Amino acid sequence: MKPRVLASVLLCSATLLSTTVPAVAAVTTATPAPTNQIPSKQLLPTPFSNISFESGQPVDNNGQFKTVTPTGAPKVTTDESIDGKVAAFNGKSAYQLPSTDAQYDKLKNGMSIEAFFKYDSKGSLSGEHDIFSNQQSGGLGLGLDGSKLTFYAHVGGSYKQPSTPLKTDKWLHAVGVIDKSAGKVNLYVNGKLVDSKDAKGDLKLAQGSNIKHFVLGGDSSNSGVESLMTGLVKSARLYDHVLSADEIKTLSDTAQAAVHHDKQVAQSFESRLVGAGNIVGGHTYSLNVHTRQMGKGDIDQLGYEVTYDPNQFSFVKADQTLGGKLTTVTETKPGQLHITSSASFSEAGFRDFGKTRLARIKLRAKTVQAGTTEQATVKFGSATASMDGTPVTGLKMQTDGQQTVTIHGMATLDYNGDGIIGAGDVALAPADKKTEVAKQAVIRPYKHVIVLTTDGGGNPWDPKGMYYTTGSDPKWTTDPAIMAKRKNTYTMDLFNKQFAMSTSAHSVLPAISAQNYLSMLHGLPWGTMDKEYQATNSTAGENYFADFDKPTAKYPSVFKVLQQANPTQSAAAFAEWTPILNGITEPDAAVNTQPSESLKSFDDVANYIGTDDFKNTALTYMQSDYMDHTGHSRGWYNDNYWNEYAKYDKLFKTVMDKLEATGHIHDTLVIANADHGGKGTNHGQDATETNTNIFMALGGETVDSGHRLEGGSNADVSSLILNALHVAQPNSMTGKVFDSSAFLDQTDLVKKNRNVENIKLTSTPNYAQVHLSAKDQQLKTADMRIDLAGRSVANVQTPTGTKIIRQTVENGIMALTLGFDQQPGADDVATIKFKSDAEQTKTVKVTDAMVGTDTGKEILVDLHNEQTTTDPQQPDTPDNTNDHLRGTEIYATRTIGFYKQASGRHPRVSRWYESKFQTKWPKFTIIKQVKNRNGVWYQVRDNNHGRTHNKIGYIKANSRALTTAYYTSAPHRVMVIAKKGLTSYRDTNQNRRGNHIRRFTSLRVARIVKANQQVLLQLSNGQYITADKHMTKALR
């Protein structure tokens, strides 16, 4: 890759793009052979160097280049279209022309470069392919930038690139002029000025250790040649002065005089529409319009209609046109587009979109009735053609059928329109539909996934160190002075505190863009794909993914997998490097692909999040190219690299702020990663850490914020996406959720201290009480999954205003959906009674739950599970007193009253204890249990600080509000909740200290132990901790 400030097409390219082939025997130029190339009667300017092939080998007739070294197998031959001999290049060959400092000095104060050539339409039109050039971080040359004929000149500190659309299979006379006195860089084609750029300053020569050689048929590199062309070259010249417009016109006329102009031939054409077979109503549909010529000919302008039903589609825009402005798309009336192209037509197949796609058309699909689909068709209309402005009659145009598209309406029961049936849809459904909706309702923490890939981003966010270099070989450093060069504050906080991140992840090999994007989006390492599917940077910019035209997709992208799983959800992709959209994503995948300008992809994603389209978009993919461009232009991990990376604070913040503002921060998983790193000004040249070490970070509602992950590969990205969206992974994908510790069970989300509603289930031997604590949202439904732990349900009771919409049990899990006529208050929303013969050794728990609001919003609530040994309102004996509970310490988990007495019509309250966080639950010691006409009571001693400290009073024996202070059975796991953590011990006497365990640490419990009048939990490591519920919280 030649790192150029203005070269945008190849910003993701790397080592494999360059074609460096061994040189064969050099040719030492003899006495210049006679030539009839320039008739003596013409008064032509004197060239500094004049390369001719009339002697049968390349010769500099002016003797400047003493040696011409062939690379590969260029041929000197003849061509029926022109007099004399020409050099033929096949995309793998070139001639090197070694140069001296003295020769370069003569070009510095104004110069011209000339080439007379014919570029073959079968050659690549993607990326850079040079004709006569000497560039590398400087220099000059004539070549192709994509499908544009371009003069590259590094003047005044950057490349100036006047250009014009290329005509293939035609002899073109091109002259590039650096006019230092006028401050201009000009490009002339066939004697006419076609483009000019301001260029004040000096010419910077090519930079490198082995770069002093011009190349004919390509460009120079430190290792030889690269950016090779396919076609013919008749002549090439350098001038040590500025050519005038008249001189250039004379040179062009003289060159074109050798061209044979035979009778014009009207070639035939074939056209085809390529797009997805499905689209969600209301979303944007992408359609590729292709035309290829069936043999060479002289038709140079073609036009035809593309038609569709305006009641089903509306025209949005057209982009990525062949030849740029040489192809236009105009809406002549609703439902009819007219396409006109005077670009170079190719005989290549339709998979070769770089040569045969005239335009990408974007249509907006109209919405259709919920629960239905509509069949739409897009087809070709009439066609016209001309040669040199003369209309062609009897045009032969074959069209490959029409494009059929199924437009999907949203699901009938999807009342909130997010593409998933859930609690929000139950809340919005009319009364007679709620049961039907509830039967299909699922609990999905994530409705959306956004992937943000920083191309060339490497591993930048590790707080313990970073890569750095002042040369071309970055090393890992922990030096604080060097680490201070990393100026990112927002991203360092985002990825280290709010996300879970791996800094030990790696790219797939080779560490090059196309190989890694293929792995990301198709779910397996590039190297494990069949050979024909192993696209490179070059081929991905020219050819569709290799599943094109195959009846069955061998390696479907994640976009295709998602669309097949749920055709009522859409997908979108934004990229600054378009091969991702064109050659890596399939053209028939139902995804809204959109090229982004440099540093604008994050803005494009943020804007998309703010649209209605995002509401039912499952996946949004984004690629930002700027850091790859930065590395290629001035190197990886140096001062400039880190200075430029500071821009990404604002970019990432733009997306995260939009997610926050729209509320989608709560239902979106964000995956951030890099495709590769780099060293020097390249990447992929080896498998060293600076090339392959990347970051992979996950942020979302169920992500364990601040957790450090281990491992990871770009081949795992699709697996993460599918796992988050609960879509089965196809057998073709071999990636995985590389570190499952990134995600918390819903029962563990309380540790994140989210400001959300919560559901608490209190389990007793024969009952389970479900309490819902509401906040600001008006709740209309709650959908829960309850693990019955082997029990059978006798009945479920709800208070007035709460209805049971669904109550089913499958594989021991109860799906319980409740509807609320009024906002849930202090009462439990459900009491589940178990059959008396049920297994009671395990704890009943709510494992998953979602609530729906009156607006259809869905909230993933916090879950609390408690266990107590006493059933509600059930005295242990038929007597009025029961002394076996004497001395039992209990906590109040909800608001309760501390009464002076339990008798009388209106028992008097001494004080109220409000509901508090578990570490501050009020504590009491039971003296005895009392039963009277007011219910069951405990006589207790108040163990809390305050005016009733140590006083004796009464509290209601309500298991929904009380729990034992110490665990009575061993929970499977506990989480430390004590503010300062706790200490473990190596013995039950608690004499031998073990470890200090920090707050929110999750511990696995082996058993419960009673020793020395204390209740302890023995951990899986053999150590002991207190069983006090003030210190730990039981987890599922």
TrEMBL record:
<dbReference type="InterPro" id="IPR044081">
    <property type="entry name" value="DUF5776"/>
</dbReference>
<dbReference type="InterPro" id="IPR006558">
    <property type="entry name" value="LamG-like"/>
</dbReference>
<protein>
    <recommendedName>
        <fullName>LamG-like jellyroll fold domain-containing protein</fullName>
    </recommendedName>
</protein>
<feature type="domain" description="LamG-like jellyroll fold">
    <location>
        <begin position="109"/>
        <end position="246"/>
    </location>
</feature>
<dbReference type="InterPro" id="IPR013320">
    <property type="entry name" value="ConA-like_dom_sf"/>
</dbReference>
<dbReference type="InterPro" id="IPR002591">
    <property type="entry name" value="Phosphodiest/P_Trfase"/>
</dbReference>
<dbReference type="Pfam" id="PF13385">
    <property type="entry name" value="Laminin_G_3"/>
</dbReference>
<dbReference type="Pfam" id="PF19087">
    <property type="entry name" value="DUF5776"/>
</dbReference>
<keyword id="KW-0732">Signal</keyword>
<dbReference type="Pfam" id="PF01663">
    <property type="entry name" value="Phosphodiest"/>
</dbReference>
<keyword id="KW-1015">Disulfide bond</keyword>
<feature type="signal peptide">
    <location>
        <begin position="1"/>
        <end position="25"/>
    </location>
</feature>
<dbReference type="InterPro" id="IPR018247">
    <property type="entry name" value="EF_Hand_1_Ca_BS"/>
</dbReference>
<dbReference type="InterPro" id="IPR017850">
    <property type="entry name" value="Alkaline_phosphatase_core_sf"/>
</dbReference>
